[in-house]
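Q: Hi! First time asking for a complex rather than a single chain. Here are the components, and I think there are three in total. Is that enough to go on?
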Amino acid sequence: MSEPVNIRQIAPGTKIALVDGALAEVVSNPADGVWVFARFLSSPGDPSRVGGEEMIFAQDIVEIRE
Amino acid sequence: MATARISGYRPGLVDLAKGQISREIFVNDEIYREELERVFARAWLFVGHESQIANPGDFVVSSMGEESVILCRDRAGNVHVFLNSCRHRGMKVCRYDEGNAAVLTCPYHGWSYATDGKLVGVPYFREAYHGTLDRSAWGLIEVAQSYLYKGTVWATWDANAPPFLEYLGDFLPYIDLTLDAWDGSDGGTEILCGIQKWRVPCNWKFPAENFSGDSYHNISHRSVDLVGIGPSGSGRRDMPELNMAKKLHIAFPERGHQTTSYLLPKEAAPPPAYQRSSVVSDYFRECEEARRKKRGDWGRMIALVGEAFPNTAFLARQPRTLAAWHPRGAHETEVWRWFLVDKNAPTEVKDFLRDYYIRYSGPGGMTEQDDMENWNYAHAASRGTIARRYPYSYEQGMGAEVENYEWEGFRVPGTVCDLTQAKSSEHNLRNLYRRWAEFMAAESWDELTSWRRPARAEAAE
Amino acid sequence: MPCDDAMSDRADQITRFLLKEEIEDFLYREADLLDERRYDEWLGLLTEDVRYWMPMRRNVKVDDREREFTREGRDISWFDEGKETLIRRVRQIQTGIHWAEEPVSRISHLLSNIQLLEVNPSVGEPAEVAVRCRFLVYRNRVETETDILVGKREDLLRRVGADWQIARRKILLDQNVLLSKNLTFFF
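A: Yes, that's all I need. Here is the structure of the assembled complex.
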């Protein structure tokens, strides 16, 4: 189980690693610490999500990269 | 001899034939609960000003009746009013007073709503809900109708309520006197930043009747008149209008709105005002001249206080304000007060007015302080078992009202009671309570829209 | 010499301590005047150009804090005034028929956390002192009506002759919706 991350201030462009192994890039951040809008860069579990933009829930984010 | 317990509204509590109103309607908790259903869940309520939500994503928290609502502007620029309660388990979605947000997220379980109210974020929608939750059915609860009028935002929870303009009817031009610029241009007003919010220990109907036109209580403000905070250096306000104008109580019995206004003579120049600042008094004089040209006889009307049923108050002049009397139980009111100035007035005029408004109104205002002392202790003294048996007196000026009041060529819309000689009347107050009683008794809007009856009768034939 | 430096540091500390005592004493005297309703004397403690400001407060996001307070000179506040209207407020109370303050309230002004923020031009010859404190104003009126108002106060005191006067008072009440039905008293 990874340490929780505070996503409230992640800037657009930041890469985030998700609990299912996917990687996404933050598009916008509503700054509520609960959600970010991100575009999937890779999604081993469900490749159809790649390129799509979704709301990502804080508890699904395991690591902030760069 | 014990009297029967009043367990809720019943006819006779408001007895307009006698000009008496039972204290129960102010202090009875059961009547209050009924009011929330019968009045606040049905009527049009004032929510805020468009300038508070100027940009997409802007939101501000307001109140309708007892309930918290979110007034916001969505990405497409449309204005919405939502119940501030998460559909999942009720948490107050927004606990900030104002801000800008892409989504409104509930801190409890993370449900997130777009600014158009749609439920867009549901944690573990795929996993925990197996993708089956019908998100379109769980958006924020939106008011049934809303209306934007000259910057003001109004809303009602009742889909059957008459449209806003019909709800106001011929009272609308009197509201315009607060919302239009001084020179008579449509709209043209803006609110000053900073909404005053404070609690008063009294039933909301005490301030509502005050602003309906309690013309009798000026003695209570005598201390203010003595020290002179008016913009021309004396009294509470500039009142040279008194000397040349007709002072009128104007009411709309079918709708429950009323106002106190001054009607100037046809050929008189507008009285001078705001003499403590030559910039302001010049601005005012130029505006008044322009208003006369633009509005003709309507330019002779100078509104003072007014009340749109049930709980939205106006003061058109000195100060210029909108207020909402939010019920917080039978025994407490939360007042919200907005202040207006002309959008295009010079900065010096706005500054002068702002200074004046602050010292006049609100809990720090030298005038309003005495009102609240009266409302507080009038309410408190009316709660007792014995006190409740004795009605309040609203007999002043009964029978003195006329239809078709006209003076020097201007026919005044509404039912009018001329106070110029009489000095005072309770005509407007009776009007407020007449309408209140109708709302409390009515099962449907058919009973509350008497002005539609001719059309309904024709349709029936 | 280190010994001389130590002595002069200590002298500075003592001067500062004595100044703080003097300022605190002034503020307590002022509180006495208000509690005892000696308003004309209180007005005498205000400079002619005094500003007396109590902004309203909003609940805003933690990083949106510039929107928290209403702005002096621009927005609606609870108070934003000068000596003239403060005098009028006193005169209103003195009419004896300002019903919101008649019968009179019982009031106590408690001050604590008094700190000197800035002294100009020097501690040795102070002409203006910026002071911060916490206040608790306890007001009780009629039978059971009680208000407890707590917050921070920032004052600018100016030396005038042998005494101090208040040139500026900023009152930051720790409330959003005001829980007191009126503000017929001074902070």
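A: Chain C has three helices and six strands. Let me know if you'd like any chain examined more closely.
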